[in-house]
């Protein structure tokens, strides 16, 4: 994955991990959990962060008009793997309040 694409993914994760965005997601997903529509607000939050990062990556690649290689998808997963503990800790920290 080229540096710009990696930066787009990293920025998407950073944006989603902002206190304000996490709080908004948590409030929404917690309400859905209480209504029985979700099993876990925390899992939904993780899924949202993952899907936003992937969406940013796909949009970047579409605008660059370059095909997405399997290698780039593997690199995307490595970025997620590298940041998964940080994501989990931020979600836990928010939900423990």
What do you see in this structure?
- The protein is mostly helical and 97 residues long.
- The chain has one domain.
- The chain is 82% helix and 0% strand.
- The chain is built from four helices and no strands.
- It has helices at residues 3-16, 19-34, 41-64, 70-95.
- Helix 1 (3-16) packs antiparallel against helix 3 (41-64), helix 1 runs parallel beside helix 4 and helix 2 crosses helix 4 (70-95).
- The termini are far apart.
- The mean pLDDT is 94.
Q: Major sheet, described briefly?
A: none
- Overall pLDDT, averaged? 94
Poorly predicted parts: none
Beta-strand segment tally: 0
Question: Per the principal axes of the C-alpha atoms, what is the gross shape?
Answer: elongated
- Helical segment count: 4
In whole angstroms, how far apart are the ends?
Answer: 37 Å
Rg, Cα atoms, Å: 15 Å
User: How many domain modules?
Assistant: 1
Fraction in beta strands: under 5%
Order of helices and strands: HHHH
Structural class: mainly alpha
Helix content: over 70%
In short:
The protein is mainly alpha-helical and 97 residues long. 82% of the residues lie in helices and 0% in strands.
Keywords, separated by commas or semicolons:
4 helices, mainly alpha, 97 residues, 82% helix
Topology:
Layout: H1 3-16, H2 19-34, H3 41-64, H4 70-95
Helix pairs in contact: 1-3, 1-4, 2-3, 2-4, 3-4
